[in-house]
Specification:
- The strands form two sheets. The protein has a seven-stranded mixed β-sheet with strand order 1-7-6-5-4-2-3, with helices on both faces. Strands 8-9-11-10 form a four-stranded antiparallel β-sheet.
- It is α/β, with parallel strands linked by helices.
- Helix content is 41%, strand content 12%.
- Helix 1 packs parallel to helix 3 and helix 4 packs antiparallel against helix 13.
- Bound molecules: pyridoxal-5'-phosphate.
- Pyridoxal-5'-phosphate binds next to helix 6.
- The site of pyridoxal-5'-phosphate has 15 residues, from helix 6.
């Protein structure tokens, strides 16, 4: 059993790990064969015995030895935030109290926070937030937006597209898919879209790829043409999926003109703002999402740009009826008819039991304030802009695009070694962790600026290492 004094020591050790690179391992990533990691963690034999407090400390040391350090300046690999202290506290509270709150009576405080937070996010999108459930009257149904928090953008995408399908084909839960259903998106849409389509029983042929610009972003003309083709082929479009912050390069689709095209045809517009949603906290950067208020549904990850730990995602709808009817035709859940106060989120999600995600998002915001989160997002974007200017000024490097967000794709031209090998070599050294991506037919090194500790000097040091790696061996 772990005692309260052990708790304090373990928490202090975690803080140290976040704040400074441990001396006994590479600064960012420490990839070793599983057998070696298992030995360090003491995963031997077939039964688990109590560790005791010393054993627990030893286990934590092993875990941290092989943990990827998101707080490291050299962490550029994935779109996951270093959680702030508020989010960490929320995870501790939820992990201790354990109030899975999709049913109100399972976590009245947690459910109230989620209801309130959803309202606040709806207002950020320019949509109407509903009053408290106890203050609702039958006549106001449909005047407000609605939403729910779920575990991640992939599940959120599935949830929103299920709601869109129910609107296009209201009897789908009774009779199954109409074979004429289709989705329209860019070829570079996140694979969450393909997965959702597969889970919903749509074949790959039922996804139409609209033409894109040089950034891989949708255009209003491309969407209009794809809609016209779908109509000519007798298809029923579930939704057009636009992206606000693409995964490969961080490009923003022009939401306003795309929304106007969708509205004129009565087609559902879904905006995947999993990455770019956090930009809405910034008065400057929210311009990138202009027109998002014209969408029908939006997905917004907090574990990317809003400093929560994984996973915490909002699915938001302009019209609450679409949200409440997503998983069935009847909106019997619109009002809490139990005679007890509260509100159940159960009918809005794939999940039945879900964590107190509103607590996580709320405490991440409450830790730094919304202005603090905005400053973090702005700093990540600004450093990416500076990195682009720096790299473009080097004769032996090139960038794929001018960055619109905190994602930058570039390559070392002189190198004999390909980008995948470079990435592997970097991971073996463990100081820098980045990814690669295919864009415009070529493979690029890809950095995502996420860590509050990254600086321009970090990028300069990275370029030096890349030059050394690209140089012919003597
Ligand atoms: C990350 C991401 C997703 C998937 O979200 P997860 O939270 O990783 O499941 C979907 N779309 C875009 C644009 C993303 O960046």
């Amino acid at each position: 059993m772990i005692s309260a004094t052990d708790w304090a020591a373990l928490a202090e050790r975690l803080q140290q790990f976040v704040q400074a690179a441990p001396a006994d391992r590479p600064a960012t990533v420490n990839l070793r064969p599983m057998r070696e990691i298992a030995a360090r963690l003491g995963l031997t034999g077939n039964t688990v015995e109590p560790l005791g407090s010393e054993g627990m400390q030893g286990f934590l040391e092993g875990y941290l030895h092989h943990a990827t350090r998101l707080s490291s300046p050299g962490f550029f690999a994935h779109q996951t935030a270093q959680p702030n202290a508020g989010s960490t506290l929320a995870a501790l509270i939820d992990g201790t109290v354990s109030n899975p709150m999709a049913i109100f009576e399972m976590g009245p405080a947690a459910a109230t926070i989620e209801y309130w937070l959803i309202g606040s996010l709806l207002r950020k999108l320019g949509w109407a937030a509903p009053p408290w459930p106890e203050e609702r009257v039958a006549e106001d149904m449909g005047r407000y937006g609605a939403g729910v928090l779920v575990h991640g953008g992939s599940l959120a995408t599935l949830t929103a597209l299920v709601a869109a399908r129910t609107r296009v084909q209201p009897d789908v839960w009774a009779v199954g898919n109409d074979p004429r259903l289709c989705l329209i998106c860019a070829e570079g849409a996140h694979y969450a879209v393909q997965r959702a389509a597969g889970i919903m029983g749509l074949g790959r042929r039922q996804i139409r790829h609209a033409a894109t610009d040089a950034r891989g972003a949708l255009t209003a003309e491309g969407v209009a043409a794809a809609l016209a083709e779908a109509e000519a082929a007798g298809e029923r479009v579930i939704a057009v999926i636009a992206t606000a912050g693409s995964t490969a390069v961080g490009a923003f689709d022009p939401l306003q003109p795309i929304a106007e095209v969708c509205r004129s045809r009565g087609v559902w517009l879904h905006v995947d703002a999993a990455h770019g949603g956090g930009f809405l906290f910034s008065a400057v950067l929210r311009q990138r999402l202009a027109g998002i208020e014209l969408a029908d549904s939006v997905v917004w990850d907090a574990h990317k740009m809003s400093r929560t730990g994984p996973l915490c995602t909002a699915v938001l709808y302009r019209d609450e009826r679409a949200c409440n009817q997503a998983f069935e035709q009847e909106a019997s859940y619109l009002f809490h008819d139990k005679g007890l106060p509260g509100f159940d989120f159960l009918h809005r999600t794939v999940e039945c039991t879900k964590a107190a995600l509103g607590l996580r998002w709320y405490l991440a915001l409450a830790d730094q304030g919304e202005a603090g989160i905005a400053r973090h997002v702005e700093a990540c974007v600004e450093l990416t802009r500076q990195a682009h200017a720096l790299i473009e000024a080097q004769p032996d490097f090139e960038c794929a695009l001018r960055p619109e967000a905190n994602i930058l794709c570039f390559r070392h031209q002189a190198g004999e070694v390909d980008e995948l090998q470079i990435r592997d070599a970097l991971i073996r050294e463990g100081r820098f962790h980045l990814s690669t991506t295919l864009f415009a037919g070529r493979r690029w090194l890809r950095i995502v600026v996420m860590s509050p500790a990254s600086r321009l000097q970090t990028i300069e040091a990275l370029l030096d290492v890349l030059r050394r790696m690209g140089a012919p061996a003597d």
